[in-house]
């Protein structure tokens, strides 16, 4: 379930996801689908593209366990780190400002040791 390969440039473990995301950029609400999340960032697919270093507000929820029975909502300010153009969509990666203790705890609980 955890996505780490030998050619992976990322230092942090990423957990795959397929959850809805709302991000707000320049007072515009954009809906997207989360592709993965790590301790400090999330990736998502959107019909919208964003420039690197744009400041955005991100709203999403993640399950508090692999069972998925309970979820926790989160809202963070974030910075766009990349925006990759796909055929008709974009993959946007953001770095979260100051992940909360709750977020970090859930991430740690979902990450196998």
Describe the structure.
There is one protein chain. The protein is mainly β and 113 residues long. Helices cover 9% and strands 49% of the residues. It contains one helix and seven strands. The protein has one helix spanning 101-110, and strands at 15-16, 20-25, 28-37, 41-46, 55-63, 71-85, 90-96. It has a six-stranded antiparallel barrel. A hairpin with a 2-residue loop joins strand 2 (20-25) and strand 3. The longest helix has 10 residues, at 101-110. Residues 1-8 have low confidence and may be disordered.
- Please indicate the percent range of residues in DSSP E strands (runs of 2 or more): over 45%
Rg, Å, rounded: 14 Å
What distance separates the N and C termini? 13 Å
Number of helices: 1
Largest beta sheet, briefly?
Answer: 6 strands, antiparallel, barrel
Helix content: under 10%
Spatial order of the strands forming the largest sheet: 2-3-4-7-6-5
Number of strands: 7
Give the overall silhouette.
Answer: globular
* Structural class assignment: mainly beta
Q: H/E order of the elements?
A: EEEEEEEH
**Overall mean pLDDT score?**
86
Query: Which residues form runs of ≥5 with pLDDT under 50?
Result: 1-8
Name the quaternary structure: single chain
């Amino acid at each position: 379930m955890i996505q780490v390969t030998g050619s992976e440039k990322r230092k942090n473990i990423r957990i795959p996801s397929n959850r809805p995301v709302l991000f707000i950029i320049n007072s515009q609400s954009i809906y997207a689908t989360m592709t993965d999340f790590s301790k400090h960032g999330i990736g998502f697919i959107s019909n919208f593209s964003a420039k690197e270093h744009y400041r955005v507000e991100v709203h999403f929820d993640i399950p508090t366990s692999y069972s998925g029975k309970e979820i926790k909502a989160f809202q963070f300010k974030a910075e766009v780190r990349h925006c990759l153009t796909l055929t008709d969509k974009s993959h946007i990666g953001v770095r979260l400002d100051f992940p909360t203790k709750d977020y970090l705890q859930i991430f740690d609980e979902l990450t196998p040791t």
